């Protein structure tokens, strides 16, 4: 059987230590259960140290350079790996960002589709049939409210959320899974359909997902998992989406 190799590009904040681990882990697990499929991974980095609006805006502008760099590979799909940077730019901005980055790639002569983590989160929650979500985030109060408003503007009510007010992005990457599981327990009665264990692509959650699903009475996902799923859909591969058996009105 002829093997198919899919080249995955990632546009990543310079201080991110998580996304280049978690997305490949999801996709390699997918490949291990799919005959004749391989993935390779290629990143370009945008400078950012602290999760603050001014740094996020400057970083987002740098994503255009990254799109040009990734077109040299070439790749089959790119993921913009910073949820809050997109959401801080205004409601619905993920659509504009994806369109701009795809235009740049086309101008370079190597067009490829783009998935943003912000867009992937809301689209995958919709695929799951989610109407109400609970979110766990590392952000400041202000940025956490920005994420809530963004998700709700996309038609998904945020039933509850917890944020940890961590601004240094390296520290975000060191938040232990036990803290996420504690927040999950606190929100157990929130009435959500789905819990997003990490509404952030830097806060690690991969090692905690199985335990979170065991503890929770509802489906649990993460932004990194949603990004990997959206990439699979974009390149035409089947995705088994965990759907809600019944969504409460």
Question: Would you mind describing this structure in some detail?
Answer:
It is a single chain. By secondary structure, the protein is of the alpha/beta class. The protein is about 45% helix and about 20% strand. The protein has a four-stranded parallel sheet with strand order 2-1-3-4, with helices on both faces. Strands 6-5-7-8 form a four-stranded parallel sheet, sandwiched between helices. Helix 5 packs across helix 10.
List keywords for this structure.
249 residues, alpha/beta, four-stranded parallel β-sheet, 8 strands, globular
Helix content: 40-55%
Ends: how far apart? 48 Å
Radius of gyration: 17 Å
Morphology: globular
Strand order of the largest sheet: 2-1-3-4
How many structural domains can be distinguished in the coordinates?
2
SS elements, strand count: 8
- Ranges where pLDDT stays below 50 over 5 or more residues in a row are 245-249
Query: How much of the sequence is in beta strands?
Result: 15-25%
Report the CATH C-level class of the largest domain: Alpha Beta
Count of DSSP helices?
A: 10
Calculate the mean pLDDT score and round it: 91
In the CATH scheme, what's the topology name of the largest domain? Rossmann fold
Task: Find the structural class using helix and strand composition.
Answer: alpha/beta
Largest sheet report:
4 strands, parallel
Do you know the CATH architecture of the largest domain? 3-Layer(aba) Sandwich
H and E string = EHEHEHHEHEHEHHEHEH
In short:
With 249 residues, the chain is of the alpha/beta class. The protein has helices at residues 19-32, 53-70, 83-87, 93-107, 117-127, 141-153, 169-172, 177-186, 209-215, 223-234, and strands spanning 4-13, 37-46, 77-80, 114-116, 132-137, 157-163, 194-196, 220-221.
